[in-house]
């Protein structure tokens, strides 16, 4: 977006003033004049951006002549700009993604026992098929053992079997969404094969959101196989993100209000229970603002972790913590809380080994439950910050977790998205409805869960924990999560 210079006149009487930006976006300002004619204004920006705008607002104040001052008029030059775009989403996926539609519940309330139970994970099974000699494509059946309460992502590798194999050994992601048919096929290009040979397929990893059942199958080459096409009928496309509720909070990184306690319109640098989490094996102290974990930079709020010059022992356990972790929590921020609604973060992720970035939702009181929209498990040696995705639900009561439904092997490419989580800004969205919790990346549905936590009041958090050995230098790559914007919608 090119810079657009506007002139706005503000009167002595406080109020909301609107003007069009181009042909669409309204700007609303609330100006309060103090110390008449001394040019001291308190200006509260209340701009509601369009859904496709992520940028910054710059205000330049100029006081007019004495007569104008006496009349209570000042001029503000307003500049809007979009410094760098989000990572583009592939046109194929954007075109294929579908608007969100109402879907019937697949499980009754008794399946969730008030948020302490979740339907058992289904099993993913592979089934043998036959293909004709000379064919250039091998396919097998992939099925799940029953209706699923959550998205399932299976990982099926096509590899060399008995005398026949693929042109390229590869692993494909096979996605089942709640309500999809229970069986589909997966195929790979092969070299022409003779009768009596076979191409091997194997579940190369435990599926996300399910268990591994029959893990191997073959496409068996025969002289003439029955005609069987790929199974695709009845499988829906991923949903496109649509906010649920009315916009109640919007701020870019420059406008996020933060202090160590939190409150109305203000994020807290502490978690609701304190500044350490030893039960998770964390070795970082969630620092106050004065410890230097937060910086404003080019319209973004940068949350930075590091090794501390001297360990901190201010946690409730009294132990020394050698690393600085960072948190922004809305547990004291009523504007950010909702039972049903949506939240969106636009961020660039860290990539430092042993960092643990997360975007998540917690209940107003107690734990569990918990909704993990994104987690980056940097303490796992095989975690790839540029491409790996993870979501989870934690259920239970009275401090006792009784179930989780972890998805942690997914990759951006499984959904047609670019592997640039640590080099470009991406949007992460969660939509919480009475029946469903749906997670999106760059507006494309990645995971959907049947909602077991109906009526729970949530607040959002953004954190970068540290889970490094105490003697670690913790200095490779970037230990910072960069926040470009946060938006929250509330339906109830």
Q: How many individual domains?
A: 3
The residue fraction in helices comes out at under 10%
Mean pLDDT figure: 84
Structural class: mainly beta
Number of strands: 33
Largest sheet: 8 strands, antiparallel
CATH topology of the largest domain: Jelly Rolls
Distance between the termini: 34 Å
Poorly predicted runs are: 1-85, 88-95
Pfam families: Glyco_hydro_16 (PF00722)
Keywords: Hydrolase
Protein name: Glycosyl hydrolase family protein
GO molecular function: hydrolase activity, hydrolyzing O-glycosyl compounds
Structure description:
The protein has 492 residues and is mainly β. It folds into three domains: 4-81, no CATH class; 109-222, CalX-beta domain (Immunoglobulin-like, Sandwich), CATH 2.60.40; 246-490, Jelly Rolls, CATH 2.60.120.200. Helix content is 2%, strand content 43%. Strands 16, 20, 21, 24, 29, 30, 31 and 33 form an eight-stranded antiparallel sheet that branches. Strands 19, 22, 23, 25, 26, 27, 28 and 32 form an eight-stranded mixed sheet that branches. The longest helix is centred in the N-terminal third of the chain and has 6 residues, at 91-96. The radius of gyration is 26 Å and the shape is globular. The two termini are 34 Å apart.
Task: Provide a brief overview of the structure.
The protein has 492 residues and is mostly beta strands. The protein has 2 helices and 33 strands. The model is unreliable at 1-85 and 88-95 (pLDDT under 50).
Detail the topology: elements first, then pairings.
Blueprint: E1 4-10, E2 16-21, E3 25-34, E4 40-45, E5 56-63, H1 66-70, E6 74-81, H2 91-96, E7 123-127, E8 129-132, E9 137-144, E10 152-160, E11 170-176, E12 183-189, E13 198-203, E14 211-212, E15 216-222, E16 246-252, E17 258-259, E18 267-268, E19 284-286, E20 294-297, E21 300-304, E22 306-312, E23 321-329, E24 341-348, E25 355-363, E26 370-375, E27 392-397, E28 400-404, E29 426-432, E30 436-441, E31 444-450, E32 458-466, E33 480-490
Parallel strand pairs: 7-14, 8-15, 17-18, 19-23
Antiparallel strand pairs: 1-6, 2-3, 3-4, 5-6, 7-9, 9-12, 10-11, 10-13, 13-15, 16-33, 20-21, 21-33, 22-23, 23-32, 24-29, 24-33, 25-26, 25-32, 26-27, 27-28, 29-30, 30-31
